[in-house]
Design a protein that fits this description.
This protein is mainly alpha-helical. It has twelve helices and four strands, in the order αααβααβααααααββα. Helix 9 packs across helix 11.
C-alpha cells in the first residue's frame, strides 16, 4: 500500500489553471530556435527551452547557443556563484521556457534558474513530505521516471515499480542510468546513447544493474509531473516493464512473465 504524498495543493491549481501559459509555452517552444525570430526578438528577450529529461550539460548548451556563450561561460554557469552556495546540481533545472535578454551573464541566468526551481519545487515541498521522502531522493526517482516514461500515462506506474524494487532491495535495472553512465565515460556527442547489453558491466555508481538502490544523484532534470509521480506511485504488483515498438507499456509481476512478453513482442528475451 502506498501513501499518497502531498506536493502542495497549489500544484494542482497551478497545473489546472495554466492553459493560457501552456499555449504560450508551446508557441514559444515552436519558434524558439528559428534564427529570424530570435533576431527580431533580441531587443526584448530570447526564448530558451529547457525540456524535461535534459541533463545539466544540455541545459547549459541550450542557454549557450542562444546567448553566444563560450566554454568558459558555460562552466561558470554550472559552478558556484554569489547567488547560490552550491553549484547547480543535476535535477535542479526546472524545465520550461526562459525569456532571457541578450547579453545576460552566466551568473544572472544561474540566479534565474535557481529562482525557477525554488518557485516550482522548493516552495511546494513541505516539511511533512520531506520527512517521509527527502527531496534529493524524490528528484532522483523523478529523473528516472522522466527518462523511462513514454508520457504522463506511464509515470505513476513506473514510479510504483521503482518503489517496489527499492522496498525489496532489488537492483533497479534502469536503462536510462546506463545511458547516463555511458555518456559520463566519454566525450559524449550524444548525451543519451543507446544502451547495449555490454553496458550493464560499466563500472559506475550510476549503473543500477551493478549497484543496488538509487544512483547518487538525479540523472536528468524532471518535470513537476515526474516529481508528483515519484511521490504518488500507483499501487501495483509489477516488478518488470518495457515499452514495445509501438511505445505501448507492458508490466509483469515475474521475470518469467517478462521474458515471455519480450519474446512475444520482440522474438527474444532480454
Amino acid at each position: 500500500m502506498y501513501i499518497l504524498l502531498s506536493f502542495n495543493q497549489c500544484v494542482v491549481a497551478w497545473n489546472a489553471g495554466s492553459v493560457f501559459g501552456s499555449v504560450f509555452a508551446w508557441v514559444a517552444l515552436a519558434i524558439a530556435d528559428v534564427p529570424l525570430y530570435q533576431s527580431v526578438a533580441s531587443a526584448e528577450g530570447r526564448f530558451v527551452s529547457i525540456t524535461p529529461g535534459m541533463r545539466k550539460e544540455q541545459a547549459a548548451n541550450a542557454f549557450a547557443k542562444t546567448l553566444g556563450w563560450n566554454a568558459k561561460q558555460k562552466k561558470e554557469f554550472l559552478t558556484a556563484s554569489p547567488y547560490s552556495s552550491l553549484p547547480l546540481p543535476e535535477g535542479s533545472f526546472s524545465p520550461g521556457i526562459y525569456v532571457i535578454t541578450h547579453g545576460t551573464t552566466p551568473l544572472a541566468v544561474q540566479a534565474l534558474v535557481n529562482e525557477r526551481f525554488s518557485e516550482n519545487i522548493l516552495s511546494r515541498y513541505g516539511p511533512e513530505t520531506a520527512r517521509v521522502v527527502p527531496l534529493d531522493q524524490t528528484l532522483t526517482i523523478a529523473s528516472l521516471i522522466e527518462r523511462e516514461a513514454n508520457g504522463p500515462d506511464d509515470m505513476r506506474i513506473i514510479s510504483g515499480i521503482i518503489w517496489n524494487r527499492l522496498f525489496i532491495n532489488m537492483h533497479l535495472q534502469i536503462d536510462a542510468t546506463l545511458q547516463y553512465a555511458k555518456a559520463n565515460a566519454s566525450a559524449a556527442n550524444n548525451w543519451w546513447p543507446r544502451p547495449l547489453p555490454v553496458d550493464r558491466f560499466i563500472v559506475s555508481p550510476y549503473n543500477t544493474y551493478l549497484n543496488k538502490g538509487l544512483p547518487p544523484t538525479p540523472i536528468a532534470n524532471p518535470s513537476v509531473a515526474s516529481v508528483l509521480a515519484a511521490l504518488n506511485p500507483r499501487d501495483t504488483s509489477c516488478l518488470f516493464y518495457f515499452h514495445d515498438a509501438a511505445r505501448q507499456f507492458h508490466c509483469t509481476d515475474t521475470y518469467t512473465e517478462h521474458v515471455a512478453l519480450l519474446k512475444k513482442y520482440y522474438g527474444r528475451g532480454r
